[in-house]
Structure formats: structure tokens, C-alpha cells
Amino acid sequence: MSQRTEGKIAIVTGAASGVGKEDALLLAREGARVVLTDLNEEAGHALAREIGETALFVPHDIASEAGWQQVMARTEKQFGAPSVLVNNAAILLLGSVEDATLEQWQRVMRINADGYFLGCKYGVAAMKAGGGSIVNMSSVAALGGMGAFCAYSASKGAVAALTRAVAGHCKQSGYRIRCNSIHPDGILTPMTAAFLPGGATALPEEVGGAEPMQRMCHPRDVANLVLFLASDESRFINGAELRIDNAQTIMGVA
């Protein structure tokens, strides 16, 4: 085992399932102590038990400022100051600019944009003395837009711009904090499966190879990139927008 995150303390939001769960498991396997946050308390506590004494679960609404204050306080008390923050929790609602309601727009923005702002705000405050890495989950929707997901596209665009602002601020302030965004085209998770034909629940083991046009990746593909950004191997990568889309974006194919 390489222990690429040994000695690091990582907070992962939306850790009870999907990408967040894979992130937490991989970071823990590589030596990190992990704080798991989610609204799904049953699954969150189960994952913490699976990982063991190096994990802590905290119930958490990422759009709540008091929630972030509690997460940071419990992290500090249990393990110490965090050195990795993975802003992963998000929601996906169907709706074009014509179909979406203001209520839907505000709900998506509250979680996907406000929640990430608060995560970065409190993450920077917690890390500025010792340094660290913030990883924000965005989407290719932030780069090209998705007509059927108006609010989601806008929220992920906000995440991408926020990431650049945070990276620039930390560099100018002399903080040893990096902030990068990840932009998948699609990930097979419980959240996205509902939008696939027949509610697909399985994919080929590899993206590419025998299926070069495959657009959907596995949560573990994203987790591998999160691990790299969390580790010291990526120490000079800051303010980057990293696509994980099997070249879909550059092909310009909707």
C-alpha cells in the first residue's frame, strides 16, 4: 500500500454513497483520517463503521453555515485541523430554462453553489495555518452547458468560477492551500441512474478500450483523481479544471 495520503485529515461531503463514498474509502485506504458528512445518517454511520477508528461521520446539510461550523469543530476535536476538503455533495434536477421553476433553481443553487461557497470559506479558515487541498466537484455542464439541466449547469459553473477565485486568493495571501475542480461528463451513481434509459445500474469495467464512445465513468475513476489532488503529488496543480470525460467535451458532441 502506497499510503499517498498518510497523515492527512480529509473531509468528504456526500460521503454516504456514490462518488463521495468511493473518495472516502480510497483516501482512508491510502492513510488519511476521514470525516464523512451527509444527510443520510444510516448509510453514513455504516460507512464510518466499515472504515474503522480512522473515520468519523457527521450529519450535515452543506448549505447550512451552522452545519459547516459543527463539521469543522468536530473534525478539530476528533483528529485535528483538516488538510483535505472534498466538496462533493450535490443535487441534480431536470429542467430547461423554460421548464425549471424558480423554486427548483433556488434549491439547486442553495446546495450546489451556496454549499460549496461555505465549504471553501470554512475550509480556507481551517487550513490557512497548515496548508491543504480543496477539491470541488463541478461538471462538464460548467464548460459547455446542458440544456435539459439549466439550474444544475449554472450551479456547476459557479463552482468552477469559485474554484478559480479561491485558488487565486490563497496564492495571493501566501496560504499553502490549493483549490481545483473536477469536471466529469457523467458518473454512474444512484443520483444519475434515474436519468438513464431503463435506470441503468451497471457499466463495463473500463471506460475506453472496447467501448471508446462510453461517456459514463465509475465513481472509482473520479476517486482516483481526487486522491491525486489530495496528495502531495499534485503540489503544483492549483486553480485547474480537470475534465474526466473520455474526450467528450473536446469532441463537441452533445
Structure explained in plain terms:
- There is one protein chain.
- The chain is α/β, with parallel strands linked by helices and 254 residues long.
- The chain has 9 helices and 7 strands, in the order βαβαβαβαβααβααβα.
- The chain has helices spanning 18-29, 41-51, 65-78, 102-127, 141-144, 150-173, 190-193, 219-230, 248-251; strands at residues 9-13, 33-38, 55-59, 84-87, 132-137, 177-184, 241-244.
- A 7-stranded parallel sheet has the order 3-2-1-4-5-6-7, sandwiched between helices.
- α3 (65-78) packs parallel to α4.
- The longest helix is centred in the middle third of the chain and has 26 residues, at 102-127.
- It is globular and about 45 Å long.
- The model is unreliable at 203-210 (pLDDT under 50).
Question: DSSP strand (E) fraction?
Answer: 5-15%
Name the CATH homologous superfamily.
NAD(P)-binding Rossmann-like Domain
Overall spatial form: globular
CATH class: Alpha Beta
Strand tally is 7
Q: Which CATH-level-2 architecture? A: 3-Layer(aba) Sandwich
Q: What structural class do the secondary elements suggest?
A: alpha/beta
GO molecular function, one term: oxidoreductase activity
EC number: 1.1.1.51
Family: Belongs to the short-chain dehydrogenases/reductases (SDR) family.
Pfam family, one: adh_short_C2
